[in-house]
């Protein structure tokens, strides 16, 4: 690809964007590709992407990156009620109220936050998708029933629903993930159904039907894949929500009972008691949550803008 | 048994302190303005931050600290607690005599005392209350309603299967009540200092249908009396209860038989979050609160608040459940004494006491605090020795044993200020010694107390604040025989006939000196058997603003606010 | 219009039915079932049997559901296990506080959010624009309870400007009529009590309003940006209409339509957030009661409160729909 070609493509791209549609075929670029290009030029998207990638890298290599064991209570014997040693040689961010290395706990904690975010979002996507596909593909009374159910789920404020589920399942990390996932289900169900409906009457779906292709093949082979981009956008945004919601549930005492296992939300709510002694114990995990949530939000929003023709001007 | 959360609160500094305090209080009053003319001095309103709402205000149905905290100001019993101490002292009774067989108590009552409704306090009123408790029926006989009556007296008139040790109460004249028991117990008469045995106005009890409980055992709905008209003889009268905002207001009883309190009124305001309580004090919207976090003792002092540290009169322990309890998952490994010893050796009590508990806390060698008669110097001790722990575990062939470790959440107990931190440290100790831990966190009330008492935990954190100065109140509560030669389900229904016998003997021993020796023997037996690891005795604290005078911390956590005043 | 309202009301019925079904299932699924939930874990088998018989839990499921529904319609959710009082009574005692708080939060979010979003859009690309965009992103990403703690630490504890907990200074002995404290103070002419109650709303209200604020800023900004480029605005400008008139009549009015729908949707967020903020600020509303109920495993309260809050949420959205219908005639037809 020459530099010249690049500029040209970009010009076509811009032109296409202004017209509100992207020409497909030989000379043009696919929708996804053009979206990707727009993303690359968007500083907001880059910021988001950098944060997210950094977060993923830290989570992936946490055991290698953490300078100390996150569970060992190194400085416990130096701790007195009301006095927590600050940062020092070997403990750059200091230690928590039980003498564990804060930096290592933050690093390793990224894994738990990522795990909670990803698992609950995936669960939400899968179940929501199943419902949405059911409604979108069949229409008629199936659609009515499923969507009413989704509306009912939507009529319970999110956190309240998560609380109900958590109370039902008891206090453990899986309950936490499921509780968050359930609040995501209706969102994805609506989204999927909406975008499937939009495509059901599209030209290619009509054409496929006219060719006598079975409904299931149309749905799973064409309509569904084409509905995925909004799902990806929403999933990115949901990851941010999930991480914040996990912190809220931890605060409400519905988090992971294994307090030794580092998790940002639990670390944050645990640190409230030491706010006046060592505010950094709360500030660092809070910053981690905020920055990562921000990263996913920035990325998600720019993805949405990139994929939405309305924003292409 | 620790059926319900708090249990009682404690009291106890030395008599010397009490005298000093009285001197202080009176000098404060002298220096105050408007003392002359015999008019009551206007002492303002004290706002005190409580950790929870009272369940209701009829102490006969109370068993938790927040209920008793308020009830103690409104109601009085035949006996009360020594100011700042743990010994029972006369209150509504001026004194009492015991018959030689220890079964008949003659109480000489204070005269000229009136209930808040203007009716007279007399021997008939005393007997009315005793008969009321003995004749409870239906829901009122459930342990969740009348826990303390049952702990001390056993059963009711309506429960012939569970006989009561209460026989009768007779008003021989206006100011003499004779109470007869069917057997001697260490609990009587000390227990009469508990708010649960307060003497309340017979007229008000009847008028507002005090015994009319409804709902179910675990969701009791209380009577109009208990919610709106509690009527005692105490220094304060009940004024109002704003349930939406969790505010109970009590006002000075102008006709109090003793020295009328300086304060016009006290508002107990519920602020369940400990950080919020601290910040509200700092912001000046409350004048004091209970359950100060150990981490805050120093910083609050530095800011000019008075942190009132109570003498430790409690025990925190790690209970074992070796799994004889039907219907629970047994962890038979804990039946091996070596495994129990391994756990005891694995726990670093010194570090726990130094790092997690307030200054003044001490590591426990047994299940009673050292200030209680019956504490034994020569019990078997288990020092921190992880190598020994691993070795014992190896000998028992139990390396890697998985223990379900139960701990409570969102609660602060006088003996356990920060359960989460305590859990994490012990957890790490046990992991280091070669155990595998499966943590289970439950909210304190009711889930945690229920689960633990039902024997669902392998090991669990729990504790106790003494109700009065008697060893049976500690070790009898934990380890007395429940039935069929078995201890409570909380400790895995273990069978240790020697321990049971020693405890029963001591409880029925009328002579205090003999009793002390028998308690010591029981403590030795218990620490040999090791049904759990005693961890610490911790001094809980209250805090009040600089201008609050005269609040005497009680080791029983049974503070009385009648001596409190606010200066400008 | 009437037909539109009636239709929307009718659409409520299946939602409410479904909601009750869901909560019924939830109660059934609790460990030990409803009897244990109501009687506690220590209930004896006899007590459970008695309870089951009393409430017809030995009957077929559909009969049970109908009974449950019958009681729910009469707002009978039993008694709280913690306080022994009727759940409904507690709800109505506490709801006014939550309504006051959410109203304050909403007014704060709207009052600050719309002007800020508008200005940001008008000065597209300026520092004000970037600041409000970044600020609104941060607002959404910050855990509410942490923000609440920070606000309290700063404004109530360190600076001492505002009260940091409760609904009313306890030493003020105010007369209660409606349990809306601000309103009560005004009605009884106890203006100091009203002012005090209002001050108690400020910090929790701001904490609670931050997320809606962030969202409203973003939506307002986006929709103003959209509208400025619409043909009718260009036409109006070209026509030579005064800038102020164009802004008022064309830009603001049209831009507010999408904003008003989001405001309805924010109610759910506010009710969720109230659990966290009320807890941090020890504010005696519905949210802090739910927090307490979680810890006391007070299922009667959880079930009743969640159902009633969901109904409130549905009703608020209905009101928003109806008002939207009034604003935008197109909606009614659809």
TrEMBL record, chain A:
Lineage: superkingdom: Bacteria
Protein's name in the database: Peptide/nickel transport system permease protein
Main localization category: membrane
GO CC term, one of those recorded: plasma membrane
Organism: Geodermatophilus amargosae
Residues annotated as transmembrane: 44-66, 114-142, 149-168, 174-192, 282-303
Sequence similarity: Belongs to the binding-protein-dependent transport system permease family.
Assigned keywords, A-Z: Cell membrane, Membrane, Transmembrane, Transmembrane helix, Transport
UniProtKB/TrEMBL annotation, chain B:
Annotated Pfam families: SBP_bac_5
GO cellular component: ATP-binding cassette (ABC) transporter complex; periplasmic space
PROSITE patterns, per the entry: PROKAR_LIPOPROTEIN
GO process annotations (BP): peptide transport
Gene3D superfamilies given in the database record: Dipeptide-binding Protein, Domain 1, Dipeptide-binding Protein, Domain 3, Periplasmic binding protein-like II
Entry keyword Kinase: no
Top-rank taxon: Bacteria
SUPFAM superfamilies cross-referenced by the UniProt entry: Periplasmic binding protein-like II (SSF53850)
Keyword Signal assigned: yes
Residue intervals of the Solute-binding protein family domain: 87-485
Signal peptide extent: 1-25
Alphabetical keyword list: Signal, Transport
GO molecular function: peptide transmembrane transporter activity
Protein family membership: Belongs to the bacterial solute-binding protein 5 family.
Protein name: Peptide/nickel transport system substrate-binding protein
Gene source species: Geodermatophilus amargosae
From TrEMBL, chain C:
Keywords noted in UniProt: Cell membrane, Membrane, Transmembrane, Transmembrane helix, Transport
InterPro entries tied to this protein: BPD_transp_1_N, MetI-like, MetI-like_sf
Superkingdom of the source species: Bacteria
Compartmental location: Cell membrane
Pfam families, sorted: BPD_transp_1, BPD_transp_1_N
Transmembrane segments: 101-121, 133-155, 197-217, 305-327
Protein name as it appears in the record: Peptide/nickel transport system permease protein
């Amino acid at each position: 690809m020459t530099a010249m070609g690049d500029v040209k493509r970009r010009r076509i791209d811009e032109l296409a964007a202004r017209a509100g549609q992207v020409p497909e075929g030989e000379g043009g670029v696919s929708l996804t590709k053009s979206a990707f290009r727009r993303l690359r030029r968007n500083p907001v998207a880059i910021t988001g992407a950098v944060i997210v990638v950094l977060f993923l890298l830290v989570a992936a290599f946490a055991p290698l990156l953490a300078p100390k064991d996150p569970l060992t209570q190194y400085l416990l014997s130096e701790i007195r009620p009301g006095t927590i040693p600050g940062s020092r040689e070997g403990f750059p961010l200091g230690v928590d109220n039980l003498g564990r290395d804060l930096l290592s706990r933050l690093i390793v904690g990224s894994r738990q936050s990522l795990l909670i975010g990803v698992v609950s979002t995936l669960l939400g996507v899968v179940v929501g998708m199943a419902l949405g596909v059911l409604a979108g593909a069949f229409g008629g009374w199936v659609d009515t029933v499923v969507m009413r159910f989704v509306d009912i789920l939507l009529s319970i404020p999110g956190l309240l629903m998560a609380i109900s589920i958590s109370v039902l399942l008891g206090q453990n990390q899986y309950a936490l993930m499921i509780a968050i996932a359930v609040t995501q289900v209706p969102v994805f169900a609506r989204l999927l159904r909406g975008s499937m409906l939009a495509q059901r009457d599209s030209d290619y779906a009509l054409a496929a039907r006219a060719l006598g292709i079975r409904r299931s093949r149309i749905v799973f082979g064409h309509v569904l894949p084409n509905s995925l981009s909004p799902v990806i956008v929403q999933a990115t945004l949901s990851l941010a929500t999930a991480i914040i919601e996990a912190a809220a549930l931890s605060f409400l005492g519905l988090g992971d009972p294994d307090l030794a296992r580092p998790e940002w939300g639990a670390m944050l709510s645990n640190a409230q008691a030491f706010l006046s002694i060592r505010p950094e114990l709360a500030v660092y995990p809070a910053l981690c949550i905020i920055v990562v949530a921000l990263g996913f939000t920035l990325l998600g929003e720019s993805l949405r803008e990139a994929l939405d023709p309305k924003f292409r001007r | 048994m620790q059926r319900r959360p708090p249990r009682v609160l404690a009291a106890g500094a030395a008599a010397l302190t009490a005298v000093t305090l009285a001197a202080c209080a009176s000098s404060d009053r002298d220096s105050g303005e408007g003392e002359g003319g015999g008019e009551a001095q206007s002492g303002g309103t004290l706002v005190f931050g409580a950790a929870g709402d009272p369940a209701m205000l009829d102490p006969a149905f109370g068993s938790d600290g927040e209920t008793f905290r308020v009830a103690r100001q409104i109601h009085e019993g035949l006996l009360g607690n020594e100011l700042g101490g743990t010994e029972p002292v006369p209150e509504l009774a001026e004194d009492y005599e015991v018959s030689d067989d220890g079964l008949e108590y003659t109480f000489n009552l204070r005269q000229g005392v009136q209930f808040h409704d203007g009716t007279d306090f007399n021997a008939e009123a005393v007997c009315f209350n005793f008969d009321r408790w003995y004749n409870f029926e239906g829901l009122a006989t459930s342990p969740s309603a009348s826990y303390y009556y049952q702990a001390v007296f056993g059963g009711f008139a309506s429960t012939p299967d569970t006989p009561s040790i209460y026989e009768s109460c007779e008003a021989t004249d206006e100011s003499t009540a004779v109470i007869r028991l069917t057997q001697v117990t260490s609990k009587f008469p000390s227990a009469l200092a508990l708010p649960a045995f307060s003497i309340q106005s017979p007229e008000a009890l009847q008028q507002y249908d005090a015994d009319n409980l409804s709902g179910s055992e675990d969701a009791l709905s209380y009577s109009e009396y208990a919610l709106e008209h509690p009527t005692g003889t105490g220094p304060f009268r009940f004024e109002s209860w704003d349930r939406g905002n969790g505010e109970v207001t009590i006002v000075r009883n102008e006709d109090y038989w003793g020295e009328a309190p300086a304060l016009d009124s006290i508002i107990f305001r519920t602020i369940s979050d400990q950080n919020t309580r601290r910040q509200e004090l700092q912001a000046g919207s409350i004048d004091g609160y209970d359950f100060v976090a150990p981490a805050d003792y120093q910083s609050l002092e530095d800011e000019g608040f008075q942190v009132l540290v109570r003498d430790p009169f409690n025990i925190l322990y790690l209970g074992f459940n070796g799994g004889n309890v039907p219907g629970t998952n047994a962890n038979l490994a804990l039946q091996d004494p070596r495994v129990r010893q391994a756990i005891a050796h694995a726990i670093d009590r010194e570090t726990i006491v130094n790092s997690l508990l307030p200054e003044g806390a001490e590591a426990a060698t047994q299940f009673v605090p050292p200030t209680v008669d019956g504490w034994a110097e020569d019990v078997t001790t288990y020092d921190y020795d992880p190598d020994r722990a691993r070795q014992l575990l190896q000998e028992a062939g139990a390396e890697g044993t998985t223990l379900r470790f139960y701990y409570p959440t969102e609660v602060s107990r006088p003996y356990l200020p920060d359960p989460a931190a305590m859990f994490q440290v012990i957890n790490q100790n046990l992991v280091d010694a070669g155990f595998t831990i499966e943590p289970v966190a439950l909210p304190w009330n009711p889930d945690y107390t229920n689960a633990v008492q039902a024997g669902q935990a392998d090991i669990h954190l729990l504790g106790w604040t003494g109700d009065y100065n008697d060893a049976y109140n500690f070790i009898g509560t934990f380890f007395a025989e429940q039935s069929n030669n078995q201890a409570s389900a909380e400790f895995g229904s273990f069978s240790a006939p020697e321990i049971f016998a020693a405890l029963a003997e001591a409880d029925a021993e009328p002579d205090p000196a003999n009793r002390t020796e028998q308690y010591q023997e029981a403590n030795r037996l218990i620490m040999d058997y090791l049904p759990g690891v005693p961890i610490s005795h911790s001094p809980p604290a209250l805090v009040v603003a600089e201008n609050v005078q005269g609040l005497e911390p009680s080791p029983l956590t049974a503070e009385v606010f009648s001596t409190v005043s606010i200066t400008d | 219009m009437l037909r539109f309202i009636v239709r929307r009301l009718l659409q409520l019925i299946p939602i409410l039915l479904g909601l009750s079904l869901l909560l019924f299932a939830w109660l059934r699924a609790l460990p030990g079932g409803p009897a244990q939930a109501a009687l506690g874990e220590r209930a004896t088998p006899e007590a459970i049997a008695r309870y089951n018989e009393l409430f017809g839990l030995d009957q077929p499921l559909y009969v049970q559901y109908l009974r449950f529904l019958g009681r729910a319609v009469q707002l009978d959710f039993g008694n709280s296990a913690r306080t022994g009082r009727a759940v409904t009574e507690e709800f109505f005692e506490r709801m006014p506080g939550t309504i006051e708080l959410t109203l304050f939060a909403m007014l704060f979010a709207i009052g600050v959010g719309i002007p800020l979003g508008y200005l940001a859009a008008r000065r597209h690309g300026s520092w004000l624009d970037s600041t409000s965009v970044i600020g609104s992103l941060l607002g959404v990403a910050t855990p509410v309870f942490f923000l609440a703690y920070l606000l309290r630490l700063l404004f109530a504890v360190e600076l001492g400007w505002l009260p940091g907990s409760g609904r009313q200074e306890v030493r003020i002995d105010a007369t209660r009529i409606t349990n809306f404290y601000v309103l009560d103070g005004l009605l009884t002419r106890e203006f100091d009590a009203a002012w005090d109650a209002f001050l108690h709303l400020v910090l929790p209200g701001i904490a609670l309003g931050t997320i809606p604020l962030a969202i409203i800023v973003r939506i307002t900004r986006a929709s103003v940006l959209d509208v400025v480029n619409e043909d009718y605005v260009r036409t109006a400008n070209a026509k030579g209409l005064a800038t102020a008139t164009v802004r008022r009549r064309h830009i603001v009015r049209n831009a507010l339509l999408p904003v008003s729908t989001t405001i309805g949707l924010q109610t759910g967020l506010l009710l969720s957030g109230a659990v966290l903020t009320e807890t941090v600020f020890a504010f005696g509303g519905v949210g802090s009661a739910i927090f307490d109920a979680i810890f006391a495993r007070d299922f009667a309260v959880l079930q009743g409160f969640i159902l009633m809050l969901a109904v409130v949420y549905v009703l608020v959205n209905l009101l928003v729909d109806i008002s939207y219908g009034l604003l935008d005639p197109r909606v009614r037809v659809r």
